[in-house]
TrEMBL record:
<keyword id="KW-0445">Lipid transport</keyword>
<comment type="subunit">
    <text>Monomer.</text>
</comment>
<dbReference type="GO" id="GO:0032366">
    <property type="term" value="P:intracellular sterol transport"/>
</dbReference>
<keyword id="KW-0813">Transport</keyword>
<feature type="domain" description="MD-2-related lipid-recognition">
    <location>
        <begin position="28"/>
        <end position="143"/>
    </location>
</feature>
<dbReference type="InterPro" id="IPR014756">
    <property type="entry name" value="Ig_E-set"/>
</dbReference>
<dbReference type="Pfam" id="PF02221">
    <property type="entry name" value="E1_DerP2_DerF2"/>
</dbReference>
<dbReference type="InterPro" id="IPR039670">
    <property type="entry name" value="NPC2-like"/>
</dbReference>
<protein>
    <submittedName>
        <fullName>Phosphatidylglycerol/phosphatidylinositol transfer protein DDB_G0282179</fullName>
    </submittedName>
</protein>
<dbReference type="GO" id="GO:0032934">
    <property type="term" value="F:sterol binding"/>
</dbReference>
<feature type="signal peptide">
    <location>
        <begin position="1"/>
        <end position="25"/>
    </location>
</feature>
<comment type="function">
    <text>Catalyzes the intermembrane transfer of phosphatidylglycerol and phosphatidylinositol.</text>
</comment>
<dbReference type="InterPro" id="IPR033917">
    <property type="entry name" value="ML_PG-PI_TP"/>
</dbReference>
<dbReference type="InterPro" id="IPR003172">
    <property type="entry name" value="ML_dom"/>
</dbReference>
<keyword id="KW-0732">Signal</keyword>
<comment type="similarity">
    <text>Belongs to the NPC2 family.</text>
</comment>
Amino acid sequence: MEMMQLVKLWALTLCLVVVLPLAQATDVSYCDKKTEYGVKVSGVEITPYPVARGQPATFSIAATTGEPITGGKLVIEVSYFGWHIHSETHDLCTETSCPVSEGDFVVSHSQVLPGFTPPGSYSLKMKMYNTSNKELTCIGFDFSIGFAASVSES
């Protein structure tokens, strides 16, 4: 009987290891800790986690603003083991509903990373600007791209 309980415990542990990493809340830090940004970021959720090569990944950023935002842009910079490898700019209104009312809102960006993307640790820096090009926030966070190849690459 003891062996059977051990097998069940092992099976449960395996299921948790496979299922729990599908999404992860990620710690964020502000680019300049002395700056009082107009947009406060409370967290980032990455789905799936770790990010799978060749599959869509969604970065959802929970934030709060003290004043309405009519539009602007997001500038995203990605580094791999400290080396800058990619930059892109997006219209803020394609990543969230504009105008953004005073209070809580979510910026959600989805992207498919190429199948040849190297696995490992990445850092992302995101700056948000309003229509007058005033920086509203600047955050950074780390994420991982898994070592397993996606199903479509098999």
